[in-house]
Structures are given as structure tokens and as C-alpha cells.
Write a structure and sequence with these properties.
The protein is α/β, with parallel strands linked by helices. The chain is built from 8 helices and 5 strands, in the order βαβααβααβααβα. The protein is globular, with a radius of gyration of 18 Å.
């Protein structure tokens, strides 16, 4: 039975956000991070697929379309394991609030949708503890699509699931692929106690919900910086 970091008696707490591409989750966790920092709390941020150990390999594989669903899954698992052991666990032991833009549930959703065996995917990540809070930002597919295209001219090959040959039209492929991932997320929501946020709402309305839940479920003052604490670690910055 997987346990949360609180159940494992870690002094820190991990908050994760999940959602489809274009759901607005990255914006929400960035706003949450700033809000917590303003209160003088110990905060660290980490995002999916950002380990320097494997970042270049992932980028090269994507550009040359060399990645099968299995290699895609294993590369992301390597990225996560590296960050988990070198950043997340040490900082949770040091009493930090660790914020993660995507966690193991991204792999559960994407890799299974790409055809990897569900139990095989879960076994790969069995070393990881569960977040103490997991927010799932549930947005309509058309809302997610429009948000992505507001920021750039076209969809990315893999976010549209073009590698699965679902449709020659990238927009239709996106709807099919992300729709299937959404089904996986919804199937997981009860099992992993997702806090579901209506991501069709305004940014401000969503952030109000997130802050209220975080403040209500965590003892935030206990994560304040103390004079005996060491220098703050350099944070990674979320993509805009």
C-alpha cells in the first residue's frame, strides 16, 4: 500500500498538480509557489522531465522521433527517479514544502494511453511515496486546446499524440489522445484522492480554491524559515 510523505513521517509535505496539457496547472502552481514564498515559507519547485541527467536524451529522441512508448516511459521514469532521490526526498527530510508540476500520475495516464501495460508502469514508480495533496485541474478539451494555441502557433508532435497515428489531423489527434488521458486521470481520482479543480474557471477563481485547500489541510506556519536554517536552494522555474 503506497503511503504519503506525511504517513511516512517526513517533516516536509509534497503538493503535486496534474492535468491535461493546456489545463493551466503550471500557472496555478507558480501562483501557489509565490503565495507561499511571500509568507516566508520553505518552498522548492520541480517539474516533469527537467532532470539535467536525461533532458538532452529526451530532447534528441523527440526531435528524431526515436522514442517508442516503452523507451518514452523509461526515460521519463529515469528523469523522475533522479529528481526524486537528489532533490525531492532530501528537501522533504529538511522540512520543505515541495511543489511538483506533474508527478507519477502523469506517467500512469500517458504511458498507459500509449499502450504500456498498466501494472508494469506502476511497478516502475513503486519506489515513490504519494503526494500529501494532489490537485487535478479538469478542463474541457476545447478549453485546453485553445489555451495552448493562444501561446504558440501549433501543437507539439507528442502532446497531440501524433506518434500513435490516431489521426493525420493534429487537432483531432490531440482531442483523441488527451481525451483518453483524461479518462485515465478520472479513473485514478478516487484511488489517489485527487482534489479536483474546475479548470474552466478564471485563473483567480482557481487560485482561490487552491490556496484555501492548502491552508486548510496543511499547518503552513510550521514550514516558516528559521534563523538556524541553511541558505535557500536555487529553485527551478516553471515554463510559461
Amino acid at each position: 500500500m503506497m503511503k504519503t510523505f506525511a504517513e511516512l513521517k517526513y517533516p516536509g509535505r509534497l503538493i503535486a498538480v496534474e492535468g491535461l496539457d493546456g489545463s493551466g496547472k503550471s500557472t496555478q502552481i507558480y501562483l501557489l509557489k509565490r503565495w507561499l514564498e511571500v509568507q516566508g515559507l520553505k518552498v522548492f519547485f520541480s517539474e516533469w522531465n527537467s532532470s539535467e541527467l536525461v533532458k538532452s536524451a529526451t530532447s534528441k529522441g523527440k526531435k528524431q522521433e526515436l522514442l517508442t512508448p516503452t523507451t518514452f516511459s523509461l526515460i521519463h521514469a529515469t528523469d523522475f527517479a533522479d529528481r526524486y532521490e537528489r532533490h525531492l526526498v532530501p528537501l522533504l527530510r529538511a522540512g520543505y514544502l515541495v511543489l511538483c508540476d506533474r508527478y507519477i500520475f502523469t506517467a500512469f495516464g500517458r504511458d498507459i494511453t500509449r499502450g504500456c501495460p498498466p501494472q508494469w508502469v506502476r511497478d516502475i514508480y513503486s519506489f515513490a511515496a504519494l503526494p500529501d495533496l494532489t490537485f487535478f485541474f479538469k478542463a474541457d478539451l476545447e478549453v485546453s486546446l485553445s489555451r495552448i494555441l493562444d501561446g504558440r502557433p501549433q501543437l507539439k508532435y507528442f502532446e497531440a499524440g501524433m506518434d500513435l497515428r490516431l489521426s493525420s489531423d493534429p487537432y483531432e489527434s490531440f482531442r483523441i489522445f488527451q481525451g483518453r488521458i483524461l479518462e485515465q486521470y478520472l479513473a485514478m481520482s478516487g484511488e489517489f484522492n485527487f482534489l479536483i479543480v474546475d479548470a474552466n474557471q478564471t485563473i483567480e477563481a482557481q487560485q482561490s480554491v487552491v490556496r484555501s485547500l492548502v491552508a486548510g489541510k496543511l499547518d503552513l506556519p510550521s514550514f516558516a524559515w528559521k534563523s538556524a536554517d541553511h541558505a535557500k536552494p536555487a529553485n527551478l522555474h516553471p515554463k510559461t
